[in-house]
Amino acid sequence: MKSKKSSSVACPCGGGELAACCGRYHQPDAPPAPTAQALMRSRYSAFALGLEDYLLATWHPSTRPETLGLEEDAGVVKWIGLEIKRCEAGREGDSEGTVEFVARWKVGGKAERLHEISRFVREDGRWYYVAGELR
């Protein structure tokens, strides 16, 4: 049986194999995501994989909740897709960026979606999720 971190496992964000895509950012000693979009994708994948520690570590301290309670979603929520609609700034040399996306999942066979414009900031060489505006 292969682990979820195996390189032959598809990345939940749809960008290829997990280890070569978002999985490379999920490890505690890994380099940070280089762009706001890379962080957005890695955060979506972290939600799909139940990686609460990563999500909290990449959430800006000014808006970060204490906990997300992802263990309650385990086996209940099935993440089924991510679509990046647009990005503004958020490149390696930028200090701010936005990513508009649609995330889809199923709960009990019922499809759900989240359309959000997320704001990111880059501090000390790391991108952080700040907040999102629902569409």
TrEMBL record:
Pfam families: YchJ_M-like (PF17775)
InterPro entries reported in the protein's UniProt record: NTF2-like_dom_sf, YchJ-like, YchJ-like_M
Residues of the YchJ-like middle NTF2-like domain: 35-132
SUPFAM superfamilies in the record: NTF2-like
Family to which the UniProt record says this protein belongs: Belongs to the UPF0225 family.
Protein name from the UniProt record: UPF0225 protein FYK34_12260
Organism: Chromobacterium paludis
Lineage, highest ranks first: Bacteria, Pseudomonadati, Pseudomonadota, Betaproteobacteria, Neisseriales
